[in-house]
Specification:
Elements lengths: L1 H4 L24 E5 L2 E4 H14 L7 H23 L6 H19 L2 H8 L3 H25 L8 H11 L9 E10 L4 H19 L4 H8 L3 H4 L4 E5 L6 H7 L11 E3 L2 E11 L2 E10 L4 H20 L4 H8 L11 E6 L8 H6 L9 E4 L4 E12 L6 H28 L5 E3 L2
Antiparallel strand pairs: 1-2, 1-11, 3-8, 3-10, 4-7, 5-6, 6-7, 9-10
Helix pairs in contact: 3-6, 4-6, 7-15
């Protein structure tokens, strides 16, 4: 089975593993012991529920449930080995990675509100819950990098042997487009910032005049996850919040309200409500940055001007990408993205892309989530129709599959070797 060969990633990023934050309840069964750690029945149930929720499943296939369980055991084994080897990660590395992964997840699901809806908690609590688990994951990743220092290579002979063994179960090549793009991010204007700040200052004036902080948070905060609880963020240690927010919070006395604090998310009003050891509990009201259509129009107009210049021959698309595109990964190569499967394209634009002739440039298309987005010009330079893979037409794609198989085999051998030094007891 090809699903077995290519070891699908069951748990998106590290997020599912981090959210079973409940204490063990009476009757909660231990289903596995790994090193000095345990896996509870509630741990497995929670991860299965989250997987089903993220993948819109109404029931769980037993085979997938078993793969989730085995992945949990594998993760625990690697962590136990990392702890044995005293693998350490720096706090600044963790914070940087946490912010990167949260932004990636926001882009993946569409918005902060969607994340909070999926996990049933405000974003700040999500950040708090994730951090400890991210430390563990980074320790494990560091151990894996130490073990697998060089990339796995496969020979042409191995590719051919792989193809002959698995050609009947290889997925077909999807419909895909070869594309280049010129990307411009939507810029936050001073006018937008000023409008947002004025709103925050009006709310702050109401608080100073005696209005109830919790009620104002419920009615006005753009952090919908915490607004429903009057802006309450729960207890948190240092290192959880973004720098500007944390500096303001830790400068407050008990029950003191801050002035307006600017962060990358907008303007905050913060109230320190409780202290417990090295943990602080706070409420906040967030006023997100306003988004005026005029800023979008400016970006769209600039891209249309670039498109007109390319079509008139003033410069080529590749020159335009090098000069104007803000995608640092592709601009130096003339905006070249490569072949993109149709399922990875924004469904709102697939039909429009299909209608483009070779080397024709699209209109400016919006990309990104509601918080961070921009516009891009796309140029289609080639297209592949869906087809069965062959060595003649798809050697590089088949080579990637063969490489993954070889990597998985080495990884599985390593896990089996670790089991000789890490105690594992499966209870069911």
């Amino acid at each position: 089975m090809i699903i077995k060969i290519f070891k699908i990633l069951l748990l998106p990023l590290f997020f599912l593993a981090a959210f079973n934050v409940y204490a063990q309840k009476e009757g909660d069964r231990i289903i596995a012991i790994v090193g000095n750690d345990v896996i509870l029945e509630s741990d497995l149930q929670y991860q299965m529920q989250m997987y089903a929720k993220q993948n819109n499943l109404t029931s769980m296939n037993p085979a997938i449930a078993q793969q989730i369980f085995q992945q949990m055991i594998t993760d625990k084994i690697i962590l136990a080995k990392a702890e044995q080897d005293s693998i350490e990660v720096k706090d600044e590395e963790v914070n940087r990675e946490l912010e990167y992964r949260l932004k990636s997840l926001i882009q993946q699901v569409g918005s902060e509100d969607r994340i909070q809806e999926i996990y049933g908690m405000p974003l700040v609590k999500i950040r708090l819950t994730l951090k400890e688990d991210l430390v563990k994951k980074m320790m494990s990743d560091k151990l894996k990098r130490k073990k697998f220092t060089s990339a796995v290579k496969v020979t042409d002979k191995e590719v051919r042997e792989f193809y002959n063994d698995y050609k009947d179960s290889l997925p077909p090549a999807p419909e895909e487009f070869e594309m280049s793009h010129i990307f411009k991010s939507r810029k936050l204007t001073e006018q937008e910032k000023q409008l947002s700040k004025e709103t925050a200052l009006m709310i702050l004036d109401s608080i100073k005049a005696g209005a109830d902080f919790s009620e104002l948070a419920k009615r006005n905060s753009d952090d919908k996850g915490s607004a429903i609880n009057g802006g309450d963020l729960g207890f948190a240690k240092k290192g959880i919040f973004v720098k500007e927010f944390e500096e303001a919070l830790y400068s407050l006395d008990l029950n003191e309200v801050s002035e307006v604090v600017e962060t990358e998310f907008g303007y905050h009003i913060i109230k320190l409500t409780e202290k417990k050891g090295d943990q602080l509990r706070a409420q906040h009201i967030l006023v997100s940055f306003k988004k005026l259509e005029s800023s979008d129009f400016e970006t769209i107009a600039l891209l249309n001007s670039i498109k007109d210049s390319i079509n008139s021959g003033s410069f080529t698309f590749e020159e335009g990408a090098k000069r104007y595109s803000e995608d640092k990964e592709t601009n130096l190569s003339g905006g070249y993205i490569g072949f993109v499967p149709v399922e990875k394209l924004d469904s709102n634009y697939v039909q429009e892309i299909r209608l483009l002739n070779t080397n024709e440039i699209s209109k400016p298309l919006r990309v990104g989530d509601d918080m961070n987005y921009g516009y891009e010009l796309l140029k289609v330079t080639g297209k592949n129709e869906p087809h069965k893979l062959t060595l003649e037409t798809d050697f590089e794609r088949i080579k990637k599959y063969a490489t993954v198989l070889k990597e998985n085999k080495q990884y599985e051998d390593w896990i089996e070797e670790l089991k000789k030094s890490i105690y594992v007891d499966i209870k069911f």
